[in-house]
Specification:
This protein is mainly beta. The protein has one domain (6-169). The protein has one helix at 100-109; strands at residues 6-9, 16-17, 21-23, 25-29, 32-37, 42-43, 56-58, 61-67, 76-86, 89-98, 112-123, 128-138, 144-161, 164-169. It starts with 5 loop residues before the first strand and ends with a strand.
């Protein structure tokens, strides 16, 4: 597993935003599921690791969710929504259920990436559940599909990064 200078556990006052950040790879390493952000995520100006006084993007970064379940992939429920279009007009939207392994293949080998929009947390006694609202985007055509991922029973949620990019302020 890659080593990072900064590791921060998720809490209510994270000072970190994944909104509009692009997950470019997903890895499963035993009980850990790693979401890689090649172009980083945003460390807000109220984060103790950010002394610049402005919201900055990181360099390569990662979010790691650790699960109680040995088969962490089983803790992910994925829905995508595809528009059915005829003669340039959207007729209706179809909901498709994906195995997490299918999402991994799409992101890791088929040129898709996940644009994170919103992450909701439901805190339990030992574990937390998360609901991720994202957009699955094809790299070439920029075609977008709404994507919802329910994450069940994560015992840990950790942000990891090395450096803040002082030249990349988010306004």
């Amino acid at each position: 597993m890659k080593t990072f200078l900064h590791t921060q556990r998720k809490n209510f006052s994270d000072g970190i935003s994944l909104h509009d950040c692009y997950c470019t790879a997903i890895k499963v390493e035993r009980r850990n599921v790693c979401f890689d952000f090649e172009d980083g995520f945003v460390v807000l100006n109220n984060n103790p690791n950010n002394q610049a006084g402005k919201h900055l993007k990181t360099d390569f970064s990662r979010v790691v969710l650790t699960h109680e379940n040995e088969n962490a992939e089983d803790d992910y429920l994925v829905d995508i929504f595809e528009d059915i279009v005829f003669l340039g007009k959207r007729l209706f939207t179809v909901r498709k259920f994906l195995d997490f392994s299918e999402l991994l293949e799409m992101v890791n080998t088929q040129g898709y990436f996940l644009e994170f929009l919103y992450l909701y947390e439901c805190i339990g006694v030992k574990t937390s559940d998360y609901f991720l609202e994202a957009v699955l985007v094809t790299g070439r055509s920029r075609e977008c599909k709404k994507c919802f991922i329910k994450i069940i029973g994560a015992s840990s949620f950790v942000y990891q990064w090395n450096n803040l990019r002082l030249d990349n302020e988010i306004v």
